[in-house]
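so my prof wants the structure for this chain in the tokens format not the other one, which i didnt know existed until like an hour ago. anyway here's the sequence
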Amino acid sequence: MFEFLFKYRPVVFERGDFALALPVLVFVLVLVLIGLLVPFLLRYNRVGSHLLRRDRWILGALRVGVLGVVVFALFRPMLVVSTVVPRRNYLPILLDDSRSMRVTDGDGISRGDRILELFGGATLADSATTDDAGALREALGDRFQLRTWGFGSDATSIDVADELRFGKQRTNLARALTRVRQEMEALPVSGVVVVTDGADNGDESMAEALTGLRAAGLPVYAIGLGEERLAPDVEVRRVEIPRRALEGTTVVADVILSHAGVAGQSIRLEVEDDGRLLGSRDVELGIDGETPVQVQFTLEDSGARELEFRVAPIDGEAVAGNNQRTAMLDVRSERRKVLYFEGVPRPELKFIRRAVADDDNLQVVTLLRSADEKFLRLGVDDADELAAGFPETREELYAYSGLVLGDVEASFFTHDQLQMMADFVGRRGGGLLVLGGPHAFAEGGYAGTPLADALPVVLGDADDTIVEVRAELTRAGSRHPAMRLAPEQRSSAERWSTLPPLTMRNVVTRVKPGAVSLVTGRPEDGSDPRVLLAHQRFGRGTSIAFTAQDSWLWQMHAEITLEDQTHETLWKQLLRWVVHDSPDRLELDLAEETVLPNEPVTLRANLDDERFLAVNSADVRATVIGPDGVAIETRLDWTVERDGEYEATYSPSEPGLYQVSVHTRSGDAEVASTGYFRAGQPELEAFGAGRRTELLKSLAEETGGGFYTYEEAMGLAADIQYSESGDTVREVHPLWDMPILLLLIGLLLTAEWTVRNRKDLA
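here's what i got, hopefully its the right format
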């Protein structure tokens, strides 16, 4: 309809420059018309009194409108637009060759068949070529020299679309665009045509690809295939678990389920480890969208665990390949050291140590000030450890993964020790847990000290009033794994609500911006609630504030039975949380858990010295052991861009699990770190299989191209000839004879006649 009324396609108006072909005679005609207009307007002023002023204005406006359209046409308006020179420009066509093209949409036709219909070749459904196969390719070929590419993880030149097999395991749209731009940069190119559903699961930067396309002046014309949302469908969209955990740790996985067309149905999410069921959760699905689910499980066996998160396919599901995801978790049997310093003997110390005594993965080294300049040491490795009291050097303190600070006043420490504890969290990346007591927080004089900066709570005015509080989980606390006192989230919250009250002597009512309150203390006297447990990220580490002074009551209160393990469970989880992500001096970072065979994986390591300062120019090596048991050693080179960062690449030759161990010598000792990745065939293309319209539109708009659905694809052949890239000429498109102008004149004259007739002016 637009082209019928305005003579040209919208792209001509978008890209054309408006101009007027104004001969001298037109000036004379305009003056004559204006002279004729005045008597007409005066005529309306001379009519009888039965004609209202409003009617005069309406009739005058209609007459002026007719005159305006005529004058506009007499000025001979036109659009001057760049047009490509036929057959002198190249047009690369990128066709998606990934597995997502095998997805069948609601009309029963696969996306791969759509590509073959547009660009020629037999369809996937049968080997017969349709009558209009290649219609778009033929239309583009009349004006351009075509170059065709199939792309998955990379772009490959092909002669015809028949060469596509739609079996690529990964789609790297950014890399494909960059490859085509680089290979065609010496030729006159009018643009790049991309035919895809918009899936992009590669590791290349789309921003960098767009920058290169804009610099080269290459517009992208995207043809989006498929439906935006497939239904019915349930997809395990995302799984978030720790990268590593201590053996025996209770893990809470955050799973996002995306679903459409299944509202009201109930499904079961299961977690398996090598065929063994670890945990499950029944989920009631609501309206179309995403549903967050938490599932809890415990891993007892150390090593690389490949966990399967899956839901059973539902009847008639559009894509069944997205019903499960694999997540890798490195379960370690190592023993983590925690330094627990108490300023005075109190029951809290005894019961915390008793709670974790049977945990083989936690070594709680205790330093208790029994009198001035006298200390009791428990759990030390040798006679020299902590012999002089609390550590005075960073090397000594940083040997621990976590630090628990009990009831001890700030004046006990030197300023350097207070700064050292703050750096323990921020620079070393250790975990800090500060307990409540009469000599802790503001009451202990910590306000204004370097350690106060690391704390997640705001220290108010000191007040030694004892308040009884009942623990109340916040919304964030109900989802935090360290707060789980029972397997299910609801039963855990119920257990928290029934715990006996504790006492607080520290006035802590606010958390800092960015900190998270997990447990609120609700005073029994009805006063304002207090922060009972909160945490925040501080630099590389985590700081936690637990403001109660007698959590041991949850073990010894009359309401607690002898068999109750609430206190033990809480403190094991708290101390494991303190140390779980505390980095070692040498840390291995594998960006991807699963790669394709023969696809390079980046081995990245970060090296620090005993003070956790970055070390450059060290001899860092990696040993990779593949599924065949063969060990291959490679050297990691310092990246120079970042202090202490070393990198190398490795390409796995066969599918299976690979173990990577990085190691180096520091003085007389060797430091090492281990990680795992798998080489296999990830079903990446089954996830997010709906058309990503916004990505494709953005790609087109950022480069000056256009976006088309499959139904609009044939319009591309008409629009792309007006590209401003490549060899072009300027063409003139007259506008004076547009049908819309004649239609406007007719409508305006009809409206004037209607008004005149109703007012008896005919």
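also thought this was worth mentioning. The chain has a mean pLDDT of 90.
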